[in-house]
């Protein structure tokens, strides 16, 4: 099923006639377009006021993918407001975020060497804000670009606001991503939580809605607050399935100790090499999976002495394999990324 879908994506991309009239493509057209007089609609289409997109998902974390690699270097053509509309599950396509494949040099980061990059990735959360990185999203980007180009090698060096990230498409459809070295210095996460161990905020006390939680702060380019439970009452560990994330998530997201807001991971350790995690994402709320969050979870698990460096993180949408490599401190994430449908939207 995934293979058939990918083959038709290639046809769409490579055959200009197919591009002009994507027969068989799922067309997502906003109702207000249909209500317009045909002339206006024709003019809008002629002016290319539409975006071709493919919808991808990685463990149920879903994204609208747009290919602007042939466009100008710099910012994506869509605004955060347009992205938020596309993500709307009732009035738009429906997604947790929008990911734009851009020409190299389109994302700035310290120490950037543009020549090293194949492409750049820019992203919007479903609330229209732009995060630095997206772990599930970069796996989707890799399979998206691989399907469009249908050429080897299928390993890419992608410039993101969080630095150079390197996804590699495997023959079985999984994507392994070198997510780089996590940042633990509190000021760089950024968090006001005090450093407790070797300059990192590990098991730091954080008062949220009147309870004291123990939190470890990790940046995977974007900020994460990882918690294995409250100081009192969770000694046996969190039962993440029973948690009401919507009740507590927003209080973590906008907590004053995380000035750029934060993603929050609630983690239940089943074994040292297998944990269950539920996430409340900055700018997107409860999602089925978070790639950067799974990486941050294992980094925090190792720092707190709770997990091995190689660990499976079970998310509501399925498992991700994470390794925080001892030799060079880089985090490697492996997981799926699949095409769901593609179409065109007036937005
Ligand atoms: O940092 C943020 O604002 C996140 N919401 C970005 C998206 C992260 C994502 N869930 C991931 O997989 O890393 C897509």
Layout of strands and helices, then pairs:
Blueprint: H1 2-14, H2 16-20, H3 31-35, H4 38-46, E1 51-58, E2 61-67, H5 80-87, E3 97-103, E4 119-125, H6 135-149, E5 158-160, E6 163-169, E7 174-178, E8 204-208, E9 211-219, E10 223-230, H7 245-253, E11 263-271, E12 274-281, E13 285-287, H8 291-303, E14 310-315, E15 318-324, E16 331-336, E17 338-345
Parallel strand pairs: 2-3, 4-5, 10-11, 12-14
Antiparallel strand pairs: 1-2, 1-17, 3-4, 5-6, 6-7, 7-16, 8-9, 9-10, 11-12, 12-13, 14-15, 15-16
The chain binds (2S,6S)-2,6-diamino-2-methylheptanedioic acid.
Keywords:
347 residues; alpha+beta; 8 helices; 17 strands; disordered N terminus; binds (2S,6S)-2,6-diamino-2-methylheptanedioic acid
What's this entry about, in short?
The protein has 347 residues and is α+β, with helices and mostly antiparallel strands. The chain is built from eight helices and 17 strands.
Mind explaining what this structure looks like?
The structure is a single chain. By secondary structure, this protein is an alpha+beta fold. 22% of the residues lie in helices and 33% in strands. It has 8 helices and 17 strands. It has a 17-stranded mixed sheet that branches. Strand 1 and strand 2 form a beta hairpin. The longest helix is centred in the middle third of the chain and has 15 residues, at 135-149. The chain starts with a helix and ends with a strand. Mean pLDDT is 90; it is low at 1-8 and 10-26. The structure holds (2S,6S)-2,6-diamino-2-methylheptanedioic acid.
